[in-house]
Design goal:
This protein is an alpha/beta fold and 371 residues long. Helices cover 28% and strands 26% of the residues. The chain contains twelve helices and 19 strands. A six-stranded parallel β-sheet has the order 3-2-6-7-1-8. Strand 4 and strand 5 form a beta hairpin. The chain is globular.
């Protein structure tokens, strides 16, 4: 493999850290999209003696790791936690697994670390293993409580996009954004940049409905687009059309470590029961390989009136809403093959470029940007 000078310097520094048996502090290898940090990490991991593991925060990001040649990449949560079932109630909670494969590994490589919070990071570090973390600080800053690793100073920061990556339309668009150039309407391979007033509305509707994920910036836009997508898909729940139904996609809005529910996680509804003041649902994760879980969500989260709820009542229940369209902030740490982005970056002022860069780089194969 031909390495650029910056990449060669990174390999030397990481290899020295891997070979130093006294150093157990995590090594932070950061880089912008297209600098080859995942490829470099895989190359350097081959020099490690013993078992090497790969993980990411979400199942989508773990899938991308496997596609990039990182064998058996898993989610962090399936790697280090295990369920414990209460014999009396049947309720499952998750606890740290001391017999995790990480306990016998020599190196763990963690990709897309922007969503890793302090509690999860400390659980990883408790195994006292070498951890090489990969991240992209050109993205939006993580929300409060996240970004334990990405908020630190990088040990290596890669900035030179390698030649092969420049031919990737998504990388090309991300470079234009990062370097301050406006996106020009047009076709970029399978990807597309289009003005919304010039878009063929039927074609745009088909792109949205068939996309793996729709991203926007503002909550009011998210609510509107979710309503429209559900109408097109013929989804309507029970006596109220705005209730979720079987086949709906939901996004988690608040962590619940006992149930292994994480902010930003996507779920598919299997069954719904209207319990009067809340909805009881059985849902399966789109991000993790795990058993279905029962959640109880006040119905106000599905018609936009959740702010009217008493805080004590909110605390007693789970928090979910529709996930066909989500905000870019909620998308951090994950990737999908086909993404539609409705550009609302202007709403984020100083972070406008970071917002659009983050949104575009959530796509692994194809992105449609509606400007």
């Amino acid at each position: 493999m031909n390495l650029a000078p910056q990449q060669e310097a990174a390999v030397k520094k990481v290899s020295a850290w891997i070979g130093d048996r006294f150093s157990i502090d995590p090594f932070k290898l950061f880089g912008v999209a297209g600098t080859g940090k995942t490829t470099l990490a895989r190359l350097m991991a081959e020099s490690a003696s013993g078992k090497v593991l790969y993980a990411a925060y979400t199942g989508k990001a773990a899938l991308q790791l496997r596609r990039k040649g990182c064998p058996d990449a898993s989610t962090i949560h399936s790697l280090i936690y295990k369920p414990e079932v209460d014999d009396a109630t049947g309720e499952a909670t998750f606890v740290l697994n001391p017999d995790s494969d990480l306990a016998s590994a020599s190196l763990l490589v963690v990709d897309e670390v922007s969503m890793v919070d302090e509690a999860t990071a400390k659980d990883l570090l408790s195994f006292k293993k070498k951890i090489l973390v990969l991240g992209d600080p050109a993205q939006l800053p993580p929300v409060t409580g996240e970004g334990f690793f990405i908020n630190g100073t990088p040990d290596v920061m890669l900035t030179e996009v390698h030649r092969q990556a420049r031919d990737n339309p998504i990388i090309r668009l991300s470079m234009d954004i990062r370097e301050g150039r406006a996106l020009a309407p047009g076709q970029y391979g399978e990807s597309l940049v289009v003005h919304r007033q010039h878009a063929d509305q039927d074609h745009l509707r088909d792109l949205v409905v068939n996309a793996d994920q729709v991203l926007c910036g503002l909550n009011r836009t998210r609510v509107s687009y979710n309503r429209r997508v559900r109408e097109i898909k013929g989804l309507g729940g029970g006596r109220d059309a705005w209730h979720p139904t079987s086949g709906d996609r939901l996004i988690c809005l608040r962590n619940n470590k006992e149930k292994m529910l994480f902010n930003g996680g996507l779920w598919l509804v299997e069954r719904v029961r209207n319990m009067g003041r809340y909805l009881e649902m059985v849902v399966t994760s789109e991000d993790y390989d795990r058993s279905p879980v029962c959640i109880r969500v006040p119905e106000q989260f599905f018609n936009g009136t959740e702010q009217s709820l008493d805080w004590r009542r909110r605390r007693e229940k789970d928090e979910f809403t529709f996930g066909w369209a989500i905000t870019c902030h909620k998308s951090q740490g994950s990737q999908w093959d086909d993404v539609v982005v409705f550009d609302e970056s202007r709403a984020f002022r100083d972070d406008a470029a970071k917002w659009l860069y983050t949104a575009v780089t959530r796509a692994a194969e194809k992105v449609t940007v509606v400007i």
